[in-house]
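Table S2 (continued). Query chain:
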Amino acid sequence: MVHLFLSEPDWSFDGDDDSFKQRVSLLNDLEGIMRILIASQSRSEARFWLCNDISGISSLSSRQQRELFMNLLQTSSQKKDLAAQLLQMIFQKQPRKAGSILAKKSHMLEDFFRGNPRRILHWFSNFSGTSDMEHRKGAKALSQFAFVNRDICWEELEWKGKHGQSPAMVATKPHYFLDLDVEQTVENFLENVPEFWSSHEFANTLEDGDILCLDMKFFVNRFVKLMYKEDMEEIWKVINEFLMEEAFSSLCCHLLIALTERELCFFLDLLQESLNLDIKPKVFGDRCQYLEVILSRYSGSDSMDELLLLNAVINRGRQVVQLLQDDEHKDEKLQIKDIVQKIFKMPANPDGLVPLIKQCSNKKSTSSIKLLALHSWALHYFLTEEYGPPEAWESLFSSNGVSFRHSGKHELLHHNGLPDDSDSESDGRLSSSSKRKKKRNHRKKRRKSSTLDDSNDDDLLDLDFLYDKMDRQSKPSYWLLSTDGYSTSWSSVDLPEHLSKHCFSTWMKWGFSR
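Corresponding output:
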């Protein structure tokens, strides 16, 4: 029998026996193999899992998350890479904030357009061909500035026709701007009309931030320089506002990937300062809250290997099981399988995890939590490998006090075209009277069909065989369990993960309530 340790144990048990020591020894052996699998062979994937799970932490205030990332931006050795990633987020999500800064630094766009016909044509060629439509973007800036300052710049306008157009003519027929040689005109303005690049006409067209899409990399690099070389106050103000407004999950998903492992450790140290060190999981089963508990105990002396391992076995159990299916992990799979089978072949002692559970609330260590997490993952793996038939699952439920009902999901249709409503029975078995009734109805229908067309006898026999087979296989493979208040229909595919997480949550709940 597989013991899930879901019944309240004898808390006086101190673990001073051979079975407990053997269990801890096997879990330590399992940890050693898991470290090789997760922290060495699959480290980049494990880091990705950790960053994703950190993003689910919800206990930080807006002010705390701002201070956390501002600290990184100001002190990290990778701060420019991080700033570049953050600026790209701002450009994509709130381009007007960056556009307002560009409008104040419009003169720096001279370098952006100089010698680049593609950018010039894209931004300055948006002249309207109809009287009821106004010019857009750079075209609007060119036309407005040219009219207001025609005494100093009208001669710099290059026309495609044989002769130029006068201001008076273009004023009455704005569509004449369609004949402007835009590329040469802008080049002339770059060389001879410096006033245009600082004008409010040009600046106004930058405020919506649309220009950022022309070359985001260029603007990211320029803004990074404005941040760290010129220490431009307006940019830091925009960043402060964005860090307050943006969701913590979004910031983590976009920014943590830009950190080296050393920088990630630095981030975790900063994060720990923002977490409640006395935190206890409020919703047992919430993986982000378990991660908060672990991080609240995290210190510089703990290796990243330890954190990657803990997060993987607690929050990414199914992904770790999937890793073992790869051929490159064949040796680790054999070793893990051997250790797991030894764990669950041990004599069932209902108090076997008591010493570990009692140590969960120890604020200075994660060792007991780690061993419990390894045990729950071992259960996940064992159930995945060893359990299949519905009878085996129902035996596991019954022997561990888990009440269940058949969910009726994906019910098989019987030959009368109606679903078998027996799936909703709690014991999963048809009553003998209902079975006899179904058989009588079945025989009556066969006799009636045979009088209509004897030539279909062979087909009916084949259908008979099929229906009998369906009756034998109609025991459902989906269950509603008391573990979650009968709220979800669980299949044999998802049960290993659900039961292992439920066990871990139960053990943690006991540990933190003592």
